[in-house]
Amino acid sequence: MTTYILRRLLTVIPTLLGVLLAVFLMVRLAPGDPAQLLAGEFATPETLADIRQRFGLDQPWYTQLGLYTLNVFRGDLGESVRTRKPVTYELSQYFPNTLRLTLGAMLVALLIGIPAGIIAAIRPGTIFDLLAMLGALIGVSMPVFWFGLMAILIFSVQLGWFPVAGTGTLRHLILPAITLGIGTAAILARMTRSAMLEVLSQDYIRTARAKGVAGRVVIFKHALRNALIPVVTIAGLQFGGLLEGAVITETVFAWPGIGQLLVGSILARDYPVVQGAVLLIAVAFILINLIVDLLYGAIDPRIRYD
């Protein structure tokens, strides 16, 4: 397994280089001059030239790319054009909030999606199955911003149970986590149901039942464990999607996360922060996929890493 992990980590380097190149080129193709945005509409040419020289914007794009790549491997992501603070500092202020929100949303998705899928699978065609799949359909189809606004209206404004926006306590986290996680819960419910139905139709499940094995043991020890491989795969992909797709939820709930930082930096043409934020998200996504691959072996001991 150690060899497998090292081999996977080595593939991170070309992947990150590709991400870095793509983001570097895209942010520079966007219209707008960061020096002009920073200095103001009535800045003198001398001021603009000084800002461009300070941030290396006066050099050819390939020179900027080469210098930035070297600095990244040294652990230096540059300096924010807007705040004049290191990008690593900016990311350290916002990323923990996004990570906390994403973990909360994933917990909501797992606690709702997997039990709903199991119940729907063991009672197919019943009212439980119908309600679970109807709820999953609604969860997938419902816009995140609409659900978030309705949650604020009902549970914050009318009932007063939770704060309207901001961060700081567990009560601040509940509504954003539910809003962000409800769509993933719907996807996990459908995947769990499908995987469980396939496993429950296998011969070894019928054999276990014929031998008199308790129903709970058949469901949770034999069926669920073998059905978890595709569910874990989808959960890993969805976790990465939640991490990078929390922008709308963070905006609705004024949650100070990496999404808000990224949007503000794009509008201000703050190239170093945009590049650093996307690079951080890419690293997190790669590590999540590696963890998912390692979980396969824990779920199914027959899986070997060659």
From TrEMBL:
One GO molecular-function entry: nickel cation transmembrane transporter activity
Residues of the ABC transmembrane type-1 domain: 95-296
Subcellular location: Cell membrane
GO terms for cellular component: plasma membrane
Membrane listed as a keyword: yes
Keywords from the named record: Cell membrane, Ion transport, Membrane, Nickel, Nickel transport, Transmembrane, Transmembrane helix, Transport
Xref: InterPro entries: BPD_transp_1_N, MetI-like, MetI-like_sf, Opp2B
Domain of life, source organism: Bacteria
Topology within the bilayer: Multi-pass membrane protein
Transmembrane feature ranges: 101-122, 134-161, 173-191, 227-253, 273-296
PROSITE patterns the UniProt entry points to: ABC_TM1
Family: Belongs to the binding-protein-dependent transport system permease family. OppBC subfamily.
Listed name of the protein: Glutathione transport system permease protein GsiC
Source species: Meiothermus taiwanensis
